[in-house]
Specification:
Strand content: 15-25%
Helix content: 25-40%
Keywords: DNA-binding, Transcription, Transcription regulation
CATH architecture of the largest domain: 3-Layer(aba) Sandwich
Number of domains: 3
Largest sheet: 5 strands, mixed
CATH class of the largest domain: Alpha Beta
Protein name: LysR family transcriptional regulator
Order of helices and strands: HHHEEHEHEHEEEHEHEHEHEEH
Number of strands: 12
Structural class: alpha/beta
CATH topology of the largest domain: D-Maltodextrin-Binding Protein, domain 2
Family: Belongs to the LysR transcriptional regulatory family.
Radius of gyration: 33 Å
GO molecular function, one term: DNA binding
CATH superfamily of the largest domain: Periplasmic binding protein-like II
Length: 318
């Protein structure tokens, strides 16, 4: 015999001889009334359950009979008895209404301890070091059954990725954030001078002239630039520095500084984490930036996503 336990609601039951139902014109309230009538098999009790009058229930039953082309409920010795058509509708209708109630019910509280979500966040190597890494241990402890995928940052694609659901969050500078996404500023970042310990020309804070005489590595995300925000500041002072190396990633810049006499102006949060380097105060003040967390409107009120956002925000709040 076919298994009909989980079959979807089919109000015409695919029987050509039966009256076909136009779902677009069907009033959901009528289905709720029919469900209660089938359970109570009594107009008076159905009216009491639905907080309606008996004439209203009778009028709705008349409309149901017209809709389905069947009497549905007939007078009986102890109330009303369902027709064969009504009996066939009883269980599919009950399951359909329960599913609808579940679908429209408010989302329950999120429990990270039992969650099994897979989250995807877009981040540059700086975002990985300054935002994702500080949050990782707490995320694993609180939600051990979840998974986290960190995908490569493509700023021009962020809006489309978020709209399609390819990413749940992105970490990007406020100034460069694309339009159309929700945004929360996480922290303000500043640049610091970084060199290897024992650098022969950096035993103390350098003067401006000494600073400009050093050999620098710069991070250029297009992989070819030899100027950055530091050069703009120096130009305003009538000064220039020597840039010997251009790389696309902050982490590689830190590694190059650790293994050579090159120096760099790097974001402080990344510089404090880097191995084999020391942080010094530069003789010029280089404007920093604000780091933001971005997400799509469709996830804004989701309890699980809200928890994820709060977890990242708390991890970098210091």
């Amino acid at each position: 015999m076919p298994d009909t336990k989980n079959a979807p609601l089919q109000l015409d039951l695919h029987r050509p001889a039966l009256h076909r139902v136009d779902l677009q014109r069907l009033d959901l309230n009528l289905l709720l009334t029919l469900d209660v009538l089938l359970a109570e098999q009594n107009v008076t009790r159905a009216a009491a359950r639905l907080h309606l009058t008996q004439p209203t229930i009778s009028a709705q039953l008349a409309r149901l009979r017209d809709t389905f082309g069947d009497p549905l409920l007939l007078p009986g010795p102890r109330g009303m008895r369902p027709t064969a058509r009504a009996e066939a509708l009883r269980e599919p209708l009950r399951r359909a209404l329960e599913g609808l109630q579940l679908a429209v019910a408010p989302a329950g509280p999120f429990d990270p301890a039992t969650a099994n979500h897979t989250w995807r966040v877009a981040a540059s190597d700086y975002g990985e070091a300054a935002v994702v890494l500080p949050a990782l241990a707490g995320l694993r402890d609180a939600a051990p059954q979840t998974r986290l995928a960190v995908v490569e940052m493509h700023p021009a694609r962020l809006t489309g990725q978020a709209e399609r659901g390819d990413i749940d969050l992105a970490f990007h500078t406020v100034a460069g954030s694309p339009h159309g996404l929700r945004r929360r500023t996480l922290f303000a970042e500043r640049y610091v001078l970084v060199a290897r310990p024992g650098h022969p020309r950096l035993k103390r804070r350098p003067t401006l002239a000494q600073f400009c005489a050093l050999e620098f590595v710069v991070v250029s995300h297009d992989g070819a630039g030899f100027e950055g925000v530091t050069d703009a500041v120096l130009a305003m002072l009538g000064q220039r520095r020597r840039v010997a190396l251009s790389v696309p990633h902050f982490l590689f810049a830190a590694a190059a500084v650790a293994s050579t006499d090159l120096v760099a102006m790097l974001p402080e949060r990344l510089a404090r984490q880097a191995q084999g380097v020391k942080v010094l105060a530069a003789p010029v003040e280089v404007p920093g930036y604000e780091m933001a967390m971005l997400w799509h409107e469709r996830l804004h009120r989701d309890p699980a996503h809200r928890w994820l956002r709060e977890t990242f925000a708390a991890a970098v709040a210091g």
